[in-house]
Design brief:
The chain is α/β, with parallel strands linked by helices. Strands 2-3-1-4-5 form a five-stranded parallel sheet, with helices on both faces. The protein has nine helices and five strands.
Length: 193
Amino acid sequence: MPTRASSVAEPNLILAGFMGTGKSALGRQLAYRWQRPFFDTDDLIEKLAGMSVADIFAQHGEEHFRALERKVIEELIPPSGAIIACGGGLVVPPGMAELVRSKGVVITLFASVDTIIRRTTNKSHRPLLKGDDPEVKIRDLMKKREQAYMKAGIAVYTDGRSLQQLCVIVGRVYQREVALLKKASTKSKAKGD
C-alpha cells in the first residue's frame, strides 16, 4: 500500500462511477489509510459556487454545474498525491474522461441498480433523482452513462464487498497501474521521447 513518504510523487487516485457506488466512503477510507489528502469534487464545487449542488442545479442548471466540474478538475485538484472522488456524471461529457485520466489513475466503481437504489433513496441532495420514480431515473441514467464509465477507468464492482475488502482491491489495482505508468515513463525516457 502507498505510504505517506511516497504519496507526493505518486499519481492521484481518482474514483469515478455512478452515484451510490461508494466513491466518497471508499475515498475517505483510503485517504485515512494512506495518509493522503481527500477531495470530493462535489464539495469543491459547492465551495467554489458558494451554494449546494442541489441549488446549483435548481438556479443555474446542469450545464453550469458541468462547467464547474471541469473547472475543478482543471484548476483545483492537486497534481499528485491525493485521492479524489468524482461526482457521478463528471466523466460523462465529451473529453472529461480523458481530462480526468490525465490527472491520475482512474478506477470506476460499479454497483447493481438495487444497491444504488438502496444507497440513494431519500437523499434530497441528489438533484438528478428528484421526481416520482427515482428507480426509473437511475436505470435510465445508468444505461446512458455505462459506456462512459467503462472507458473512464479500471472497473471495480462494489456489491457484496466491505469497505475493507474494497480498500485492498482498489489498492492493488492502483499499485498495478502506477507500476505500469512508471514502466511506460522509463521506456519513453530511454527512447528519448
